[in-house]
Automatic annotation (TrEMBL):
SUPFAM superfamilies given in the database record: CoA-dependent acyltransferases
Pfam families the record matches: Condensation
Gene3D superfamilies on file: Chloramphenicol acetyltransferase-like domain, Nonribosomal peptide synthetase, condensation domain
Domain (Condensation): residue spans on this chain: 52-339
Protein name: Condensation domain-containing protein
Length: 445
């Protein structure tokens, strides 16, 4: 990667104004993400680099940035820290800097854009004084070539980001009808909101009092760097998962969760398996397409030891429904609950095992399984596992499995703490998932 151009970028001050302002406690989704930001020591940026068409002008980007900041309350939200804790403060208007980096006509604009992205990503954010958005442009020989945009996960989750990108592309002007974070915080403090939270606390307390306090046996291979990321891809797994989903009339997400649970049981040997599925909460009234952060981790307890995989599927279906129902709660109350249960049990309860299906389409256009499914699976390329990143900070959860968008394979990203689970155990876990999927799919094909 090239270094940043050795010059101060030009800056344009972009003014914006929008509907709605005020302050409130953090919404439950904001609390969940703020806790991760603090724990991981990163502002958790979403976004990336976009190539621009030759006719794009600075005025076009200024207008786009002003549109984004004006339309979406979370983008014009800062945090206030006082004796009452952390509060969200939504501003009706303000200004934000748009940076323009000139290559001088000599440096590679692709590399300059990548360097800007890295600098934006790695520079800490002051949430009390900065807007949760960073935007920069690359100018090469008098023409704009790239735009770099990063938005903090505190402002939006992946589903909200899709809505944002869809609306900015057409400059949607219809009023936002969904519940913004200020309104979410108000509902969450109401009687219905407290009832939802209390039900979630009861569900969680039952789990925390009955599960084993550890998720993985002590790792025999703690490494330096400590935290690792892997990419796993299996072409055979895609038709296998789709066939299993069709046969059992369930979503592919549930099949993948069941495969993960069964593989965890085989590798870790701690029963029941406990997985925290990331739940988007978009099925709740008024939240379907709001640009904000709503996703929270539920808790899914799967007692699958010694069971055939067909029974694992049914248990995963039932457990997932309960996990989704109670994955909407006050993070502060959850911290207190966990501390209280840990005191009473005499040990902390580890739940650091996550599953996140972040595919944008999931089962849309699900292909019909091939008539000769066994041949398709047998002739598919061997699964590929690549360790792509090792670092000492920011930290990762003990085990976090993400399902990624892909049209021709099951593609997984895995983040681990090698002091909790070894890379070899993760490799075994992923291969077990793929093998179980293939065996189950062809058993009755």
């Amino acid at each position: 990667m090239t270094a940043m151009p050795d010059r101060t970028p030009d800056q344009i001050t972009v003014a914006f104004h929008g509907t709605g302002s005020g302050q409130a406690a953090l919404s439950w989704g904001q609390k969940e993400n703020w806790s991760a930001i603090v724990a991981q020591n990163t502002w958790i940026p979403l976004g990336g680099v976009k190539e621009l068409t030759p006719e794009t002008t600075i005025e076009d980007i200024v207008e786009e940035l002003a549109y984004l900041m004006g339309r979406y309350q979370p983008l014009r939200t800062r945090l206030r820290f006082d004796e009452d804790g952390v509060r969200q403060v939504v501003h009706a208007e303000g200004e934000i800097a748009l940076e323009i980096f000139d290559t001088g006509g000599e440096e590679d604009p692709d590399a300059v854009a990548a360097a800007i992205h890295a600098r934006y990503r790695d520079t800490p954010m002051d949430f009390a004084t900065e807007w949760p958005v960073r935007m920069g442009l690359v100018r090469h020989r008098e023409r704009l070539t790239h735009m770099v945009v990063l938005i903090s996960h505190l402002a939006t989750d992946a589903t909200g980001a899709v809505t944002l990108m869809t609306e900015v592309a057409v400059r949607e002007s219809a009023p936002i009808t969904g519940m913004q974070p200020l309104a979410q915080a108000q509902w969450q403090a109401s009687a219905p909101g407290r009832r939802q939270n209390e039900a979630a606390m009861r569900h969680w307390e039952t789990a925390l009092r009955t599960i084993a306090p550890i998720r993985f046996p002590p790792s025999q291979e703690p490494e330096l760097p400590r935290y690792w990321e892997a990419e796993f891809e299996s072409a055979a797994m895609l038709p296998a998962v789709h066939a299993i989903a069709a046969r059992h009339d369930m979503e592919s997400t549930t099949v993948l969760l069941a495969l993960f649970g069964a593989a965890l049981d085989a590798v870790a040997g701690i029963s029941p398996v406990v997985v925290r599925p990331i739940v988007g909460n978009r099925f709740r009234p008024g939240l379907a397409s709001v640009v904000c952060t709503l996703a929270q981790g539920g808790i899914c307890v799967l007692d699958v030891a010694g069971l055939p995989f067909t029974e694992v599927l049914e248990r995963a279906r039932r457990a997932a429904l309960a996990a989704y129902k109670y994955a909407y709660f006050d993070h502060d109350d959850m911290v207190e609950l966990r501390a209280r249960v840990a005191r009473e049990r005499g040990t902390a309860i580890d739940t650091g095992c996550y599953f996140n299906d972040r595919r944008s389409s999931r089962d849309a256009g699900l292909p019909v399984p091939d008539a000769d499914l066994a041949a398709v699976i047998d002739t598919a390329a061997e699964p590929k596992l690549r360790w792509v990143l090792g670092q000492d900070e920011p930290s990762f959860e003990p085990l976090f499995l993400h399902v990624e968008d892909s049209t021709d394979s099951v593609r997984l990203t895995v983040n681990i703490d090698t002091h909790a689970i070894s890379r070899q155990d993760v490799a075994t876990l992923l291969q077990t998932m793929a093998a179980t999927a293939a065996q189950t799919a062809v058993a009755r094909s």
